[in-house]
Amino acid sequence: xxxxxxxxxxxxxxxxxxxxxxxxxxxxxxxxxxxxxxxxxxxxxxxxxxxxxxxxxxxxxxxxxxxxxxxxxxxxxxxxxxxxxxxxxxxxxxxxxxxxxxxxxxxxxxxxxxxxxxxxxxxxxxxxxxxxxxxxxxxxxxxxxxxxxxxxxxxxxxxxxxxxxxxxxxxxxxxxxxxxxxxxxxxxxxxxxxx
Length: 195
Description:
Layout: H1 5-13, H2 26-31, H3 36-65, H4 74-96, H5 98-104, H6 115-126, H7 131-159, H8 171-186
């Protein structure tokens, strides 16, 4: 693909936000967007996992799977790399940030099955990104995911003071807000969009 890593990075944050344009990674996004602290903690964890696992998966794909004609194993190998990295990150957070570890709870190990992380690795292969493009796209996707969950947490904090009809409380209003945010991000699509 002939797109520079710089452009790819900014496009992954705004015009092709992994969460707001592809709607990948919605489960933990909706569940942990109630509090700003947990949203930021999960967003940073997703950023690190996205960036490092995409780079590791690129190396594994191009240095092991393709040369040894094992491309048919890419899904399972990508998941193993993601799971191992998440386990490593979980151990570090538990050791050095125990309050964040308990706040994130079950959602920290569930980053392994966050479809945004797996999706970035698959986009890397489908779009035939170089190593630098992969890192730029993954880092931009992680920042875009962090930005989206922080925006939702901030809006939900403000909405606590407002009267919301009973039927819209919880996931209902969160999905409506996410849709409106996605429309806002579509406004950036005239700048650059990646397919």
